[in-house]
Amino acid sequence: MNFMDRIRPIITKKTILNILFYSVILLSLWLLSSHYLLFHAYAEGFSIVIAMMMFIITWNSRQVMDNYYLYFIGLTYLFIANFDFLHTLGYSGMNVFPDYDFYANQLWVVGRFMESISLLIGFYFLNKKKRVNAIWVMLIYGIISAFFILLIFVFKVFPECFIEGVGQTPFKIVSELMIIGILFLTIVALYKNKDRFPRPILHSLLLSFIVTIISELFFTIYIHNYDISNILGHFAKIVSFYLIYRSIIKTGINEPYQVIFNNLNEKKLELQRLNQEKTQLFSVVAHDLRNPFNGLLNLSQIIYDEYDELTPEEMKGFVKDIYDSSRSLFTITENLLEWSRINLENLQIHRESVQLLEVIKKTQEMLKLSLESKQIKLVPVHLEDVTLMVDKQSLFIIFRNIISNASKFSYENSPIEITHQDFEKEVQIEIKDYGKGMTKDKLKSLSTSLITSTPGTRHETGTGLGINIIKKHLELNQGKMTIKSTENRGTTVILTFPKNI
Prior knowledge:
By secondary structure, the protein is of the alpha+beta class. It folds into 3 domains: 1-32; 35-257, Rhopdopsin 7-helix transmembrane proteins (Up-down Bundle); 348-498, Heat Shock Protein 90. It has helices at 3-7, 13-32, 36-60, 68-89, 103-126, 134-154, 170-192, 199-221, 228-306, 312-344, 356-366, 368-373, 392-408, 440-445, 466-476; strands at 162-163, 167-168, 351-355, 377-380, 387-391, 415-422, 426-433, 480-486, 490-498. The strands form 3 sheets. It has a 5-stranded mixed beta sheet with strand order 4-6-7-9-8, with helices on one face. Helix 11 (356-366) packs across helix 13. The radius of gyration is 34 Å and the shape is elongated. It starts with a helix and ends with a strand. Mean pLDDT is 82; it is low at 6-10.
């Protein structure tokens, strides 16, 4: 593909018209720069109009805006526009505030601090599941705005930013450098969250932040309010405002329809997944329930028909087989109930400090007979002082399923070892067995939501729901799971829990 083929989709008629339109505006402003007050009024007026449009679009699309970063900063630009408007009126020569010639510089500093800090703290809201309350944003920014207006116009205690015949004060220069520093942090935050923005919007925001830094550099080096650096700084400001405005336009107006269709498609895929899971579940349950039920029926029939002829040893053997079948049925039923609970209910958990060894002993007691029947020994290694911030019942369900699986796939007379590693921010628990292990394909299938059942070393059955139940309870407790396995050599399950939640 040659160069022209690559850029042809970009250079559309609409793009060319937009470039011409904004080029005419910037050229007109440049021609007006010889009449500085007129130029300044138009330049700031253009920025103010863009900022107001950002707010209006955000406010009217607040129910559908899916990007909470752009939603937050769109609201804040109403107050940034207010300070830019006061800055324009306060400019020397406008004679709106005749008692002092340099209100404009003070208002400029406040407006730029408000803009840069808003651009940075907006990333805090990006990863929230719920958008920030617009009324609270308006109230807080309204109070902050009123506070600084009182400092500047009423109490007149805001530091001077410009002195006639001297130029910018050290406070003004340091403030501009601090604003540039905040903008650099904003670029770092944008990079860290780059996956949360569509590529065109990401590029618009990045370019806007860079141009804003360039604008602030111009406003750091100018000597007086009418030199070329000041003029170029205003041009850069207009461009940076427009780039953010374009991002909000795409997100607030163009994208919501795409977001709605994407959400509908995601719901459709989720329903298809759940339907597939349900079908698999019914298939697995129908198959795995049949064996223990048949065992119970056959054994009961034998005992009923031949009760008087059975020796105590034969009776004991049949009772053990009945227990094994009953235990299998109980495990299947319990997993089915737990699966339905975590999928059909809004499961609530209560995190607390839980002694790991206590949960392991409870699990061992519950699985005592199945462990003893294969002479499998549960070996906790130095876990006496290990505590986890988790839901206690969730942790029990996780260990019950993991150790039950480990027992199921372990060979007779083999241990199941439980160890831990303590890190600065998390605790890792390892459960290692020396059983039949898994093939690479089987291990890979565990990362999907497919429900599959594999017989154990004694042909034990199950629903295959255990892994899904474990994953759900880990997710609720902000835990993670890694599984390592080698065929015929065993499996190690690594659980990771954060220390502070």
